[in-house]
Amino acid sequence: MKFAGYLRPDGSVGVRNFVAVLPTIGCANELAHTIAEQVPGVIPLLHNHACIRVGKDAQRARKTLIGMGKNPNIHSLLIVGLGCEPIPASELCEEIAVTGKEVQYVEIERDNGYDAAVKKGVEILRQLLEKASLEKRTECDVSKLKIGIKCGGSGAVSAIASNPSVGRAADLLVENGGTVMFTETAEIIGAEHVFAARGKTPQVQQKVLDTVQRMKDEIARCGVDILGSEPTKGNIANGLTTIEEKSLGAIIKGGTTPVIDVLEYAQEPAGPGLYFMDGTTQASQLFLGMFAAGAQIQIFSFGGGTPSRIRGLPSYPCGLKTLPVIKVLGSCDDENEIQYFDIYAGNILKGTESIQDVGQKIFEKILQVAQGEITITEGTSKYSEMLQVYADGLLM
Amino acid sequence: MECIIMNPQDNVATVLKKCIPGDKLIIADTEMKEVGNIMVTEEIPFAHKVCLQEIKEGDPVIKYGQVIGKAKSHILPGNYVHVHNVVSIAGAGRLQTD
Questions:
Q1: What chain B residue is nearest to A251 in terms of C-alpha separation?
Q2: Which of A58, A133, A134, A241 is most buried (CB neighbours < 10 A)?
Q3: A18-134: which CATH topology?
Q4: Which residues of B are less than 8 Å from A186 in CB distance?
Q5: From start to end of A126-272, where are the E strands?
């Protein structure tokens, strides 16, 4: 099966063709913003990485920034730096350049100050944008697609309509040689025995259990009651009673194929198939981890019940303009909200459509979006937020 | 569909309409096949759970054929099942030191 995408020098395929500006560190955000503002059409990827991160979190941030640059939805990019940051612009440039894509940098220290860096950056971006405009889509195999999956606004209907439909689409993509990643470690708690059994090898099964155990140990160490966060107040209002119930419904969204491996946040999968990524449930941090791992498209499976008013936010979850999001609505309780979604799965609850039908529609939508069709969010919202790199350790 | 049971072993089901006491619901399985019915004895919001079989205090609440928590009180068929009468036992939702 084929789709028309942007073939990159390293063999990966973009579904979009952005020129991006990537700061080495949050302190360089203003420089990135100022440069990007003068070249309409480029995407500033402002983020919150800072010198306050140490150890594992600092390594994770490094991996995230490199992964963002490498993602095939980015045609080429300009790195902007200061000269005093932990990941120098030159180093970030080299790491990303292994993909064969064009990546240049400006740096306040090297380039004689802020104003000179702005001027130089604008000139570079204009050239990159011109080159990007000459790129054409070519026929590419569906096996080149990597998608991320997340659920949100979850309720009891998520497990009946939206998550199994998304899971069906995930199965179809894996059957066609593609790659699927999903995450949210907290939402495996209580379902880890069921989910771990799907690991491809005993080692992967153990890795799933260890990953969940680490989160459970951390909850114990903090001595907190997670009720109200897992499940959230909205989840409870939507009919979910315990984290076990939520998790058992959440794991359905990954489909039914074996779990090839457990990835770290922002880690690129080694091959095709279904992967679980260790990480947070927070949408924007999660999307960034998926994008840095190479996802070209993200699916957001919404459950619902009236209290989930996040469903009506045109941009939610927003922030990462370089990763198109296909939003799926599971609930049929408020049909006025269908307009905010790319796919409606609520007919499953009425018995007028099957999970297979809606799963097929989602799979077809993935291919259409991969070929350039804009998503509801892309078409209705300009809103963006500073990207947040996931951290779970000591902050100085 | 009015009410869905996710696994034949479950002692709760999800209602797919807003229920009032006295409502008699047809229960369907995930293949949309009719498997029985239940008389609702309390108000239950859309997509929340109804008890299908008596659950004694401390006994497991089963959905998807899995334990999703334990009963905090005696729950009767037709009762509304939610955070007021069920508590998580997976370690989450409770202080581990409890």
A1: B64
A2: A241
A3: Rossmann fold (3.40.50)
A4: 92
A5: 138-141, 146-152, 179-182, 259-263
Owner of token pair 């897992």: A230
Residues B10, B4: contact at Cβ < 8 Å? no
CATH number at residue B76: 2.30.130.110
Give the pLDDT score at B93.
45
pLDDT at A375: 95
Residue A156 to residues A162, A355, B9: CA-CA distances in angstroms? 10, 16, 18
- Domain holding B62, by residue range, is 3-87
Q: Map tokens 């924007």 to a residue.
A: A284
Sign of CA dihedral A55, A57, A58, A60: positive
Within 8 A by CB and 6+ apart from A318, the residues are A284, A377, A381, A383, A384, A385
Cα maximum dimension of chain B = 44
Nearest to A245 among B1, B16, B68 (CB): B68
Q: Report DSSP letters for A250-274, one per residue.
A: HGGGG-SSPEEEEEPTTPPPSSSEE
Q: Is residue B73 part of a domain?
A: yes
Element (H, E) at B96: none
Nearest-neighbour CA in chain A from B66: distance (Å): 8
Partners of residue A223 in chain B, C-beta under 8 Å: 95-97
Question: How many CB pairs (< 8 A) connect A and B?
Answer: 109
Tell me: pLDDT of B77 over 60. Answer: yes
CA dist., res. A149 & res. A232, Å (int) = 19
Order of strands across the sheet that contains B60-63: B60-63, B66-71, B86-87
B contact residues 2-61, partner A, Cβ 8 Å cutoff: 4, 6, 14, 16, 28, 30, 32, 45-49, 61
| pLDDT tens figures, A52-94 | 999 999 999 999 999 999 999 999 999 999 999 999 999 999 9
**How crowded is the C-beta side of A41, counted as CA atoms within 13 Å?**
17
Contact call for A227 and B93, based on CB within 8 A: yes
Q: B92 lies in a domain? A: no
Structural domain includes residue B33: yes
Residue positions counted in chain B: 98
